[in-house]
Amino acid sequence: MQETAERLLIIDDDEMFCHVLHRAMSRRGFDALVAHDATQALSLARQHRPTMATLDLKLEQESGLKLLPELLALVPDCRVVVLTGYSSIATAVEAIKLGAVNYLCKPADADEVLTALSREEGDPEAEVAEHPPSINRLTWEHIQKVLQEHDGNISATARALGMHRRTLQRKLQKRPVRR
């Protein structure tokens, strides 16, 4: 039996997203595996040694940023792309510092994921925004930065921001503002 050269581990708690990405990547010749939490992801990584992985930044009970170093410790040559619907500059920077090869905002299709996984170098032609971000976007970025500084602790972040914990939780449940 011939083994597939590229093995992709999809780590995401969104079952529908996993199903769609798994099917798309399997059609492209990948041996795709799916994990919905950190424990499952580490077990599959240990067992199957993926060459590539997509990692959701915000898993149900866990942070993808905390899982990233553990995953790379098990499979150091694995190329990991962090995917998120809750993008921020702070988490993008941390993901890259922790060893991700790229960071994509959801929704992302299979072609975008493949491009992100295969890119070896930065793009000096990357588009630079014509206008600065809105005050709502800057607020979102600041909250994400402070949350990161407090290791995801909502109560400590709320205290640091001078806001009620429930107010912060409501803000975090919303999708980030695009501009």
Report the portion of residues in β strands: 5-15%
> What structural category do the secondary elements indicate?
alpha/beta
Q: If you compute it from the alpha carbons, what radius of gyration comes out, rounded to the nearest whole angstrom? A: 17 Å
Q: Strand order of the main beta sheet, please?
A: 2-1-3-4-5
Strand tally is 5
Question: In one word, what is the shape?
Answer: globular
Q: What is the element string, with H for helices and E for strands?
A: EHEHEHEHEHHHH
What features would you describe in this structure?
The chain is of the alpha/beta class and 179 residues long. Helices cover 47% and strands 14% of the residues. It has helices at 15-27, 38-48, 64-74, 89-97, 110-118, 135-149, 154-161, 165-173; strands at residues 7-11, 31-35, 52-56, 79-84, 102-105. The protein has a 5-stranded parallel sheet with strand order 2-1-3-4-5, sandwiched between helices. Helix 6 crosses helix 7. The radius of gyration is 17 Å and the shape is globular. The termini are far apart.
Summarize the structure.
The chain is α/β, with parallel strands linked by helices.
Please describe the topology of this protein:
Layout: E1 7-11, H1 15-27, E2 31-35, H2 38-48, E3 52-56, H3 64-74, E4 79-84, H4 89-97, E5 102-105, H5 110-118, H6 135-149, H7 154-161, H8 165-173
Parallel strand pairs: 1-2, 1-3, 3-4, 4-5
Helix pairs in contact: 2-3, 6-7, 7-8
